[in-house]
TrEMBL record:
Coiled coil: none annotated. PANTHER family: ALKANESULFONATE MONOOXYGENASE-RELATED, C2H2 FINGER DOMAIN TRANSCRIPTION FACTOR (EUROFUNG)-RELATED. SUPFAM superfamilies: Bacterial luciferase-like. It comes from the Eukaryota. InterPro entries: Diverse_substr_monoxygenases, Luciferase-like_dom, Luciferase-like_sf, NTA_MOA. This is Putative monooxygenase moxC. The keyword Translocase does not apply. The keyword Flavoprotein applies. Keywords: Flavoprotein, FMN, Monooxygenase, Oxidoreductase.
């Protein structure tokens, strides 16, 4: 039986202040938690041919009055086996990191080297600890695009052939949109000053700066070619054993939990991974031979916890389970819930973000993950 795979991804971007973006996104998640966790009580699904599929007395309207978001509605469908979907987050701005530390279960992260991402992983685990969470609850997934051959020479030849089809102009369009800068107005072969860009995606700007700080002053042509082919993730090229060595380095040095596998050729890239790389990873026990929880939910398999499809009690979502809402919100005679996001509560959210100086806490907290 296949595992139930239900997830939702989110990120924080925009031109407003990071405090505003964080507060707005945080409030939005609370609204969603109230629907996923609080609208339907446990036991609302009865599936009885005589009395019906649901117990209407256990289905409640949620009225949420916030600064940025409001609703007055029932959750439209019965709860999934996980209630709240697995939460993936992307973005490494100040707001994005604080948001991920509070809400995310898994994070898409940028970076070309294990040593390059290790400080971010450590910082995020410390931030999760500051939020009262178990730091091991955060799972990290950088992008990787392996080019695999039976021999090193075959892999190198394959990469050289694939590079012929990368269009730097298409890559420039992508990079221009991320940087909010029209790179077509710059000479293709003159170095581009990264600091002159107004990036809408913080991670992209940081990735460009990291490449430039390594002594390579990128030109628009180079940027376009890089992004059209691989972007700014790792692209190890070699035999299955060589790629497995690199993956093992990522796990040991970068403290990551998996990868966002990107392709150059579809389905060719994935066929090479399945045919050549997977058996080596399984032999080294770097990859499972079967689901940790066969037939289980995505969350059970992500964390390897049979019988625990819900978010843990220390997660923000747990505050919006119906039994908790009866203690903290207004509940009428029919069991319907009204949540008023008070100004002082909003102020507390913002102050909490301001006080979360993650980089200063890294040296103070010993993580045992």
């Amino acid at each position: 039986m296949a595992a139930v795979t239900q997830s939702v991804s989110f990120g924080i971007t925009g031109s407003t202040s990071y405090l505003t973006r964080y507060e707005e996104a945080h409030e939005y998640m609370d609204l969603m938690y109230s629907l996923w966790e609080g609208s339907w009580e446990d036991g609302a699904q009865i599936w009885d041919p005589e009395t019906g599929a649901y117990d209407p007395n256990k289905i409640h309207k949620i009225t949420f009055n916030g600064k940025y978001h409001s609703t007055s509605a029932y959750q439209q469908t019965h709860p999934s086996p996980q209630r709240t979907p697995v939460l993936f987050q992307a973005g490494s701005s100040k707001a994005g990191k604080a948001f991920g530390a509070k809400h995310a279960e898994a994070l898409f992260i940028g970076g070309r080297t294990p040593a390059g991402v290790a400080p971010l992983v450590k910082e995020m685990r410390v931030a999760a600890t500051a939020e009262g969470r178990d730091p091991s609850e955060l799972k990290f997934f950088p992008m990787i695009t392996p080019i695999i051959g039976k021999t090193l020479e075959e892999a190198q030849a394959k990469r050289k052939e694939l590079e012929k089809y990368a269009d730097c102009r298409g890559g420039l369009v992508k990079v221009s949109s991320f940087l909010n800068t029209d790179l077509s107005k710059y000479p293709l072969d003159e170095p581009f000053e990264i600091d002159g860009a107004d990036a809408s995606i913080h991670t992209m700007l940081e990735a460009l700066k990291a490449v430039s700080s390594g002594g390579q002053r990128l030109t628009p042509r180079q940027l376009g070619a890089e992004f059209a082919f691989c972007g700014f993730g790792d692209m190890p090229t070699g035999t299955p054993e060589m790629i497995a060595d690199r993956i093992e380095e990522w796990a040991n040095v970068g403290d990551i939990d998996g990868f966002n596998l990107a392709y150059v050729s579809n389905p060719g890239s994935y066929e090479d991974i399945v045919e050549y790389l997977v058996p080596v990873l399984q032999k080294r026990r770097l990859m499972w031979a079967d689901y940790a929880v066969p037939g289980g939910t995505f969350r059970e398999n992500l964390h390897g916890r049979p019988g625990k499809p819900y978010l843990p009690d220390e997660h923000q979502a747990a505050k919006f389970r119906y039994n908790k809402l009866k203690e903290t919100a207004e509940v009428d005679e029919f069991g319907n819930v009204t949540i008023n996001r008070a100004p002082e509560e909003r102020e507390q959210i913002v102050n909490g973000l301001e006080n979360l100086k993650v980089s200063e806490k890294v040296a103070e907290v010993e993580l045992k993950v």
